[in-house]
Amino acid sequence: VPTDEGRVHCRLDELLEERGMTLTELSRRVGVSLVNLSVLKNDRARAIRFGTLTAICDVLGCTVGELLVVVPER
User: Fold this and answer.
1) pLDDT tens digit string along 15-74?
2) What is the rounded distance in angstroms from the CA atom of residue 16 to the CA atom of residue 13?
3) Do the beta carbons of residue 9 and residue 1 sit within 8 Å?
4) What are the beta bridge partners of residue 9?
5) Reduced to 3 states, what is the DSSP secondary structure of residue 31?
6) How many Å apart are CA 17 and CA 23, to the nearest integer?
7) Pairwise CA distance, residues 31 & 20, whole Å
8) 46: exposed, middle or buried (C-beta count within 10 Å: 0-12, 13-18, 19+)?
9) Whole-angstrom distance between the N-terminal and C-terminal Cα of the chain?
10) Can you give the pTM of this predicted structure?
11) Angle, CA of 63, 41 and 67, to the nearest 5°
């Protein structure tokens, strides 16, 4: 069975930079711990709740497709 592990990239860093927002501010506004957002930002998350995903997108004013991208197979 092929694995897709590691192919989903979270663009949180880029989106935060574009909006002049810190991870700490996003954490406060979304209500998700800094540790959990850091795991997501560093592509170490194995899952994300839809509620969390929606909240992040609402605060950043982006779509899921702008936040999460699938990296092509090598």
Assistant:
1) 999 999 999 999 999 999 999 999 999 999 999 999 999 999 999 999 999 999 999 987
2) 5
3) no
4) 69
5) coil
6) 10
7) 19
8) exposed
9) 17
10) 0.88
11) 10
Q: Where are the alpha helices (DSSP H) in 1-74?
A: 12-19, 23-30, 34-41, 50-60, 64-67
Q: Residue 16's closest CA among 45, 34, 3?
A: 34
- Rounded Cα distance, 27 and 50, in Å: 16
Nearest to 71 by CA among 49, 43, 40: 43
Tokens of 56: 């992040």
pLDDT at 1 > cutoff 70: no
CA dist., res. 34 & res. 48, Å (int) = 14
